[in-house]
Amino acid sequence: AIKTNQDLLPETPWVNIFYDDFWGTLLTHSGSHKSYRPLCTLSFRLNHFVGGLEPWSYHLVNVAFHGAVTGLFTVLARLLLGGGPWSLLAGLLFASHPIHTEAVAGVVGRADEGAALFFLLSLLCYIRHCNLRGHAARGWPVAWFLCSLACAAGSMLWKELGVTVLAVSALYDTCVFHRLKIRQVLTLLYKRCRGKISEPRKHLQPLLNVSLLALWGVVLLACRFYWMGNKPPNFSNSDNPAADSPSLLTRTLTFFYLPAVNFWLLLCPDMLSFDWSMDALPLIRTIADRRNCYTVAFYLGLLSLACFSLWRTLLPTTEHVVVFSLGLLAIPFLPATNLFFYVGFVIAERVLYIPSMGFCLLVAVGMRSLYVRLRRRSSRAVLAYCAAVLVLLFSIKTVLRNRDWQNEEMLYKSGIYVNPAKNQTAWGNLGNVLKSQESNKFSEALHYYKLAIGSRPTLASAYLNTGIILMNQGRTDEAKRTFV
In Å, how far from its chain's centre is CA 293? Predict the structure, then answer.
């Protein structure tokens, strides 16, 4: 996306950015990945203009983006949770969560950061619109609403999932601002469809806004699909093996299991990997697979939490914040679920950058509820210490995980440690890195190529590079046999 992308070069017309995909290939080309992120590519071009291919400026911008997103998220948490330590806790959890390492330390993760930045700007503009609606001059609420729509479009131009902010804004309007229950929303929709418009104006207002948000979302998606040539992208079997499976049962069970794995990575980010493709997560082929138990437990837990918050009162305003947090967790993740279209990955930690906001809010809301229910000062102190320990553990893991992203060799080795029996891609890539280094690394490179071949006997590149190393070492007969 950077080193071989012609759109970053000063001699390339800058308008090409708006016709090419993330890697500089024409969007309508049959080989295009269809990832349309022109604002991210434009930021890379500005980096290239300032410092060429020197990495420091790219990483500096990424860290600055993460700081800005963290600040805006803390503002959002303060609006939802009020002042005090709970919004600070939510912000600290987001700032330090190890799942963000790929999005921040990996330069191309800037697409997720930029989308998150405009996502929050759009949401905060919409919240401002809701607060001014009916209490200010007519022009100001409209202006904030238009700013929200513009930022939503900007978020989508950073990365495709940014368009989901429109659904999150609709959820805020109905569940947080108007505090409507789901059954009330369904009743209003039913009466509206039947032509009964005798409901109070305050109940009809959210329906009008939600309709406008939905219309803008349809317009953005239609323009996006038209711009990429009205054709979906094509992915290889190794990118998403479940999507290529001929068995409906296998696809269904695996796709339902993947959100549970992603949630576990948010809850316990101990085992992180740069590459979850191929067989890093084996397909679930039968009902008897014990991983289905995790799937059932995950969805029952989410359903129980949603029902509990909708039908019972935890604390004043808490039930609405819980529903909103669940929506912020789930809605931005929907494009990655393979529910609407197949995606080019099994698990990608960077796509959890925005959904993790909902997770951090849930943790902060849960701790606030516990704190209020606990009467003894010592118990409250223990809870505060637990929160501090959680932030500290996240921070330590983030520092350790950042070391894996220092260079290619360390990154590929970290992938092998996570999935030692599956990650033949990491073995092959590690061999390539070692082969390109000084000659005393050749034996180590051969070792990893053999591991890659043992894991995947049809990996042609591993045979080719093994033969080249043997030939350079004068072991001609071995090289011939390897090439054959």
Answer: 25
